[in-house]
Specification:
By secondary structure, this protein is an alpha+beta fold. The chain has two domains: about 40-95 and about 300-350, no CATH class; about 125-295, von Willebrand factor, type A domain (Rossmann fold, 3-Layer(aba) Sandwich), CATH 3.40.50.410. The chain is built from seven helices and 18 strands. The chain has helices at about 1-30, 140-155, 180-185, 195-210, 230-240, 260-270, 280-295, and strands spanning about 35, 40-50, 65, 70, 75-80, 85-90, 100, 125-130, 160-165, 170-175, 215-220, 245-250, 275, 300-305, 315-320, 330, 335, 340-345. The strands form four sheets. A six-stranded antiparallel sheet has the order 7-6-5-14-2-16, with helices on one face. The protein has a six-stranded mixed sheet with strand order 10-9-8-11-12-13, sandwiched between helices. α2 links the parallel β8 (about 125-130) and β9. The chain is globular and about 55 Å long.
């Protein structure tokens, strides 16, 4: 009996040792990799001169983009509401000069991108997030009027989504080019209770991040956040990593809510947007007009990141070169965090089939 128990115990010990060895082998196996998955990085860039006027007519060669100090090659470029085009180097231009050319090799008058990138950068996806909490009771109708005028004034192929929030997020109108549908969503909103701005903004960023192309979020808020579970720093970082500028319009003076005002300023600056403090309905209309003007003058740049071992936060800088750079100010997001994925040895091998032809996504 004792021999049988000893023999059984020996089998258990051997099996346990083999299991430990397999785990240790997996942890040290050079074929098991952690890969950082980074696709095309997309930037919305505003360029202003010393007087605050937009600088237009710039070329890809006027921009220098770096990521963690590493120079990046601009892959696509566009200005304002024009369709973004692929950028190639040389090819009949002056040595080293970047030239905009359609991917299919047709004449330069074409505004179409090639099939690889599709129309992912033509027009913008504009998400409007409206505060319907009890902070908004007094100016509710005026805010609706300002938002409605902004929606009507948007140019080109832009698609618009209209969301509202108090404690919960209401997706009144999902992304659509139909302005009348968006306006109906604006007019049917009703006042709510507590304000959970950062919760709602986080969900809006996630919705926007599922779409390719240019994306911006315009927030109309009338007070502090008193119900959210997520901190604003996490929301701002997600927006940065997704490449989504946030424009904040607060209908309260900055001195009344200094904490919220500071958060709004930091969040908009970090993502490449702007913050406005508009107490009266006329100031609110001017703020929306300023945002519309900004969207019409943004440059769209993208690049495929050079090899970078950094798996954490990556800093982005965009500078101008040449004569037109003097006295200019550049505004864009200041970085992003790439998505890390654990990849097994078997999945490292490229797979054939439909995956090889999928449209690339962007950060």
């Amino acid at each position: 009996m004792v021999k049988k128990i000893s023999f059984s115990l020996l089998i258990v010990i051997v099996a346990l040792a083999a299991s430990i060895n397999r785990v240790a082998a997996q942890e040290t196996d050079p074929e098991t990799k952690i890969r950082v998955e980074v696709n095309m990085v997309q930037l919305n860039v505003a360029v202003m001169d010393s007087k605050g006027n937009y600088v237009t007519g710039l070329k890809p060669s006027d921009f220098v983009v770096t990521e963690d100090g590493l120079p990046q090659k601009v892959a696509t470029f566009g200005e304002g509401n024009e369709a973004t085009r692929r950028v190639t180097s040389g090819d009949g231009d002056k040595p080293g000069e970047l030239r905009i050319r359609p991917q299919d090799g047709s004449s330069e008058s074409s505004t179409e991108l090639g099939s690889e990138l599709g129309t992912m950068m033509a027009g913008a996806n504009v998400y409007i997030l409206f505060d319907t909490s009890n902070y908004m009771y007094r100016g509710f109708v005026f805010a609706q009027d300002a938002i409605a005028e902004f929606v009507r004034s948007l140019d080109g192929p832009d698609r618009v989504a209209f969301y509202s929030y108090s404690r919960d997020l209401s997706r009144a109108t999902t992304l659509t080019p139909d302005r009348s549908q968006v306006l109906r969503g604006v007019r049917t909103t009703v006042a709510g209770d507590d304000a959970a701005l950062y919760n709602a903004l986080l969900m809006t960023i996630r919705d926007a991040g599922q779409n390719t192309g240019r994306k911006v979020i315009v927030v109309f808020s009338n007070g502090p956040d008193n119900y959210s579970m997520v901190p604003p720093e996490d929301v701002a970082e997600l927006a940065q990593s997704k490449g989504i500028p946030i424009y904040m319009i607060s209908s309260r003076e900055a001195k009344i809510e200094p904490i919220s005002s500071t958060v709004f300023k930091r969040m908009s600056a970090a993502t490449g947007g702007e913050a406005y403090f508009a107490k009266t309905w006329k100031q609110q209309q001017k703020a929306f007009a300023s945002i519309r003007n900004d969207l019409a003058h943004l440059y769209s740049l993208s690049y495929y990141p050079q090899s970078n071992p950094n798996r954490g936060w990556r800093a982005i800088t965009v500078k101008l070169v040449g004569e037109r750079a003097k006295g200019c100010r550049v505004r864009t997001r200041n970085g992003y965090r790439p998505q890390s994925t654990h990849v097994s040895a078997e999945s490292v091998v490229p797979q054939s089939g439909a995956a090889a032809g999928e449209q690339p996504s962007s950060n």
